[in-house]
Amino acid sequence: LESISHLSRYLLELYSRWLTLIVVHFLEVDMDYCNITFSQYAPLAGANAQVRALQRRRGTSVFGEVEFRATDTIRVNLSGRYMHESKDFGIRRTPRPPSLGISPGTFLAVTSYETAQVNWDDFSPALSMDWQITRNAMLYASWTHGYKSGGFAVQSSSLLAAGPYEPEEVETLEAGLKSQWWDNRLRLNATLFHNRLTNLQRTVNRTENGVLVNRVFNAAAAVTQGLELEAEYQSGEELTLRSSLGVLDAYYDSFCANIGFSGGVSGVPPSHPCGTTPGTLDNSKLPLFNAPE
């Protein structure tokens, strides 16, 4: 893995109420991934192969931010990022006789080389405002559009299995209170948030034609929302008390894909067909990944 990154920043303040920030960023990442598919089971021996995946990612982004101090206690912030991104992907696959085993030092001549190239453009805006109610308390609210890059699953045995998959997007609403009391010895913070994710990327390991393949699907939409409370009290120089509470409601809004799972276990209702692709099932009743109950 090799990467090159360049960053330029420009900051300008006008008339004590306007603050402008401009950032230009360039990134290039080269990835080289190798794996060997091997089985001593005779019916699967024909799938033995050495696979090498090469990927180059180039991204150029321009970020701009304008902050307006409407009054001494109210600030409004508007920002946005434009990104152009390209990914070049190639996968080299060579059948491998079972007699070679899994020795990494033995490589054969490449018999097939498949390539693909994709481009994406994205604009991600954000708007926020905060109000300093008193010297010790501030209310704030924000709306943000986020973007997660698409690409190829490098741990795949073929170009078809690798993708590409599309970018994932999220819209976030957040509002809260930040405050300090009693000569800053007591801190009380509260946050409400709501996130809606679309084109959610989900990784599935499946066996196809006797070969374990790694597939990434844009199969889902999800919602995460909740409340976070935080309190901290410094009773002395050597004792600080902290407490926090988090309430999370997270679920799939939709999840239509062929993931090789039919439901009906661990309290999950049986899945039903959905979409137009043969074999796709409604998996929206599954628990959201990495979301504790």
Please characterize this protein's 3D structure.
The chain has 1 helix and 11 strands, in the order ββββββαβββββ. The chain has 293 residues and is mostly beta strands. An 11-stranded antiparallel β-sheet has the order 1-2-3-4-5-6-7-8-9-10-11. A hairpin with a 5-residue loop joins strand 9 and strand 10.
- Number of beta strands: 11
Strand arrangement in the largest pleated sheet: 1-2-3-4-5-6-7-8-9-10-11
Give the overall pLDDT as a whole number. 82
Helix content: under 10%
Shape: globular
H-E string = EEEEEEHEEEEE
In percent terms, what proportion of residues is strand? over 45%
Structural class: mainly beta
Radius of gyration: 25 Å
Alpha-carbon distance between the termini?
Answer: 36 Å
Largest sheet: 11 strands, antiparallel
Number of helices, counting only DSSP H or I runs of 4 residues or more = 1
Oligomer: single chain
**Low-pLDDT ranges:** 261-271
List strands and helices in order, with pairings.
Layout: E1 2-14, E2 18-37, E3 49-69, E4 74-95, E5 112-134, E6 137-148, H1 159-162, E7 168-181, E8 186-208, E9 211-234, E10 240-257, E11 281-282
Kindly summarize this structure in a few lines.
This protein is mostly beta strands and 293 residues long. It has one helix at residues 159-162; strands at 2-14, 18-37, 49-69, 74-95, 112-134, 137-148, 168-181, 186-208, 211-234, 240-257, 281-282. It is globular.
